[in-house]
Amino acid sequence: MALNEYVITLLSEIGIYAIAALGLNVTWGYAGQVNLGQAAFIGIGAMTSAILTLHYGAPFWLALLLSWIISMVIGLLLGLVSIRLRYDFLAISTIGFNFIVVGVFQYHDIFGGTVGITGIPRPIIFGFKLSGLSYTILVYLMFGLASILVWWIRRSWIGKAFEAINEDEIAAQSLGINVKKYKVLAFAVGTGLAGLSGSLLAHFKTSILYEDFAFSKSIEIISMSALGGMDSILGALVGSAIVKLLPEIIRPLMEIRLAFYSILIMLVLIFMPEGILGRRSVLSRQLNSMVINIIRHACKSKIEGIKLIGKDPT
Amino acid sequence: MLTTEIILQLFISGIVVGAIYSTMALGLTTVYGMLRILHIAHAGVYVIGAYIGFSVYLLSKNILLSFIAAAVCSMIIGLAIEKIIYLPLIKRPKHILLVISIALFILIEETVANIAGHHPKGFYTNIPNIIISLGNLVISSYQLIVISISYTALLLIQIFYSRSKIGVASKALIQDMETAEALGINSRRIIDYNFIVGSILAGISGVLVGLYYSNVSPYMGDIVAYKSLVVVVLGGFGSISGTIVGGMILGICESYLTVLFGQILPRDAFAFIVLILLLIFRPQGLFGKME
């Protein structure tokens, strides 16, 4: 049973962080807007949800919805700032934002101060208390919904606009795309997903501390996103799984976890900037060519078959 | 609550911290000016400098020797980062380089932590800690050491950049890399020199911070890494005198803001609020001109 619980905990964490990584993929991977403070938005979501359920007795669903909306609104504001900034300075101000948010959490008792918020209730749905496996299922359900949202965005006109901005901002603008609007939107979608994952995290861990949302957490999420492939939905899950599982499998890595993440990020960005499942990554290309080969083979044998049928069967 | 004495006293402590910020940020400014890379790993160089200075002092009990050792080691590390990481990847998108630089910084920090231990180590020297009082004001001997060493270094640097051939060439490269190269400046060599100068300054400021707070910690660079970016922005990206003044302004502002609003936010958050406000309202920096 103990192992089961351990596996369930790990699976839930993977799913929760995958949602945040998915959000980063939208902001950074699709629209090309750098956000190095994703952990701050997880924190905003987590704190909102914790305070709402604990102090105001709000039901879980409402808290989840509100933490999504509040993170999205704050992300929207940061997005409004971002449109004034050049690329790398946007990056620094998101780092700064992360430090500010953590500072606010640390210094104000409503956010738990230096001891954190404890005793966050587990969600109760139709009188059924979600814990263990049922919570994991909820997490993956939310990941599924988030994936559908992101998939829909990507397919829609919004996704095309994101892609155009990412490729060439000036060209996108000259084609009549409202670059500012879409940049802000990209921020809002990405940070909203981070808030969602924060709410799920708060009700999963039942106690949260300002340190859980420090800049190093943002780095962890970036490594998930970069590893999986920044323009891939499934990549977020794969990246999250690798980053969470590797230190568990190779126990000595626990001690040097951060060093390990940093080496991982460097190697991935230098040698395979598309990640594992990115659209132009090595694996994707291989898979694509494999699929094409299989289809070609199938077609060929069919054609041969047709030829054979056409011939005299002697 | 704020009397004249307190205001002046805060000014002094602000100047001391500001001197460290300026020394630290100078390398960042020149690197950003030339290569357009936000060199976060510079703070890693600073941590290594502090630890080398600390260990050499433990072995030799000679503070001068520890400064020299720290300077030499940081120079080597700085050059290695330039040659191995930055130059081969210079064509990559800049935000990718930024993330690589952050990762490199964390790697250095964690390596130091795993070798020397995660906990801070006391850095006690035989330099006496004398409190000098000037009327109602007090200034400690350590504060005097920090001020004198860093401002001497900064003055020398200022002279180096305005008088020497290499310094002037560096300024030309910061202004316009391609034109400067067309005029026959060997950019690679000048960039090397700038990494050397910047890294030496980072190493020295690492030892100074260790001395001033009488401890060294593997995570001492955590906040400095991003705060020195604030100085770069304040100084107007690539201006050497701007960086020196920017560091002082940040140090002084911080010490006042902490006293005024210390209950609301931690000290380190102010720098970032200043940064974000500055980037919104004066994206070219406090002293910078619009590009």
Strand content of chain A: under 5%
Helical fraction of chain A: over 70%
Question: Could you list the spans of chain A in which at least 5 consecutive residues all have pLDDT below 50?
Answer: none
Shape of chain B: globular
The name of the CATH topology of the largest domain in chain A is ABC transporter involved in vitamin B12 uptake, BtuC
Tell me the number of structural domains of chain B.
Answer: 1
Second CATH tier, the architecture of the largest domain in chain A: Orthogonal Bundle
Summarize the topology.
The complex is a heterodimer of chains A (314) and B (291).
Chain A: H1 2-30, H2 38-55, H3 60-82, H4 87-107, E1 124-125, E2 128-129, H5 133-155, H6 157-167, H7 169-174, H8 179-205, H9 215-228, H10 233-249, H11 257-271, H12 282-310
Antiparallel strand pairs in A: 1-2
Helix pairs in contact in A: 1-5, 1-8, 1-9, 1-10, 2-3, 2-4, 2-8, 3-8, 5-6, 6-8, 9-10, 9-11
Chain B: H1 4-35, H2 42-60, H3 63-86, H4 94-116, E1 121-122, E2 131-134, E3 137-140, H5 141-163, H6 165-175, H7 177-182, H8 187-213, E4 215-216, H9 221-235, H10 240-261, H11 267-281
Antiparallel strand pairs in B: 1-4, 2-3
Keywords:
heterodimer; A: 314 residues; mainly alpha; ABC transporter involved in vitamin B12 uptake, BtuC; 2 domains; two-stranded antiparallel sheet; 12 helices; 1% strand; B: 291 residues; 11 helices
Notes on the structure:
In chain A, strand 1 and strand 2 (128-129) form a beta hairpin. Chain A has a two-stranded antiparallel ribbon with strand order 1-2. The model of chain A has no long low-confidence stretch (mean pLDDT 85). Chain A has helices spanning 2-30, 38-55, 60-82, 87-107, 133-155, 157-167, 169-174, 179-205, 215-228, 233-249, 257-271, 282-310; strands spanning 124-125, 128-129. Chain A is mainly α and 314 residues long. Chain A folds into two domains: 2-275, ABC transporter involved in vitamin B12 uptake, BtuC, CATH 1.10.3470; 281-314. Chain A contains twelve helices and two strands. By secondary structure, chain B is mainly alpha-helical. Chain B contains eleven helices and four strands, in the order ααααβββααααβααα. In chain B, the strands form two sheets. In chain B, strands 1-4 form a two-stranded antiparallel sheet. The longest helix of chain B is centred in the N-terminal third of the chain and has 32 residues, at 4-35. The mean pLDDT of chain B is 86. At the A-B interface, helix 4, helix 9 and helix 11 of A face helix 4, helix 9 and helix 11 of B.
